[in-house]
TrEMBL record:
Pfam families: adh_short_C2 (PF13561). It comes from freshwater metagenome. GO terms for biological process: carbohydrate metabolic process. Belongs to the short-chain dehydrogenases/reductases (SDR) family. This is Unannotated protein.
Amino acid sequence: MVTQVDPVLNTKSIMERFSLKGKTSLVTGAGQGIGRALAHGLADAGANVAVIDLDLNLAEIVAQEITIRNPDVKVVALKADVTNPDQVTNMVDEIVKNWGSLTIACNNAGIGQWVDTLDMSYEDWQRMIRIDLDSVFLCAQAEARHMVKNKYGKIINTASMSGYIVNYPQGQAHYNTAKAGVLSLTRCLGAEWAEKGIRVNSLSPGYTRTSLVADLLKTELGQKVSPIWLSRTPQNKMAEVTDLQGAVNFMASEASDYMTGSDIVVDGGYLAW
């Protein structure tokens, strides 16, 4: 008779599985906003972090912050245009060359824009799709080509609740479409790469108080739209960037190893209404 192993008693403790100590990670668009918070969150859990941004100065500032807060983790700041295939490949290759592997990748870089579709130029449309969707494909592909060698890896794409809804009152059809594409791409890659040991999931934030949003809220337009946003959010407040760290650290850790092709929404209840 074969004795069945009890997983509850024979698996590492949940806190040990949440730890990212010894893991190697990258975060794109990490020079500010949500990306900066995600980079800090991974480092807080023990991961080495590559801070990636188009603005190297911003990336270096965040890298310095992480080093001061978590002196035991390795940190590097890199400049990369994540819409450029060669730069994306070089970015990932450099990280693997320096650290030997890539365990966690947060594809977070993106932009936003408000413009009614009747006034939207084709250039606006193409730029949004290129930065918010094409870059996720390019990064995930380059990251997976290394992760597959170790038969393990976590890819986390920043989507948005806007991939599920039509935001109001602002016009942003191109942004919503790009984020819906990120959700679909995440599902596709999660299923396609499951047998290779690579988990692909996404984060969908609701309205989040980044520094750019905070500046917007000081304007006449911001003061006009923010009450509408909050009236549709059951918690009646915007997220802070730190509210997003827990979901990403979970998806980055061993605690979520059976999760792939999924999305975690952190929106204060917006989609529930």
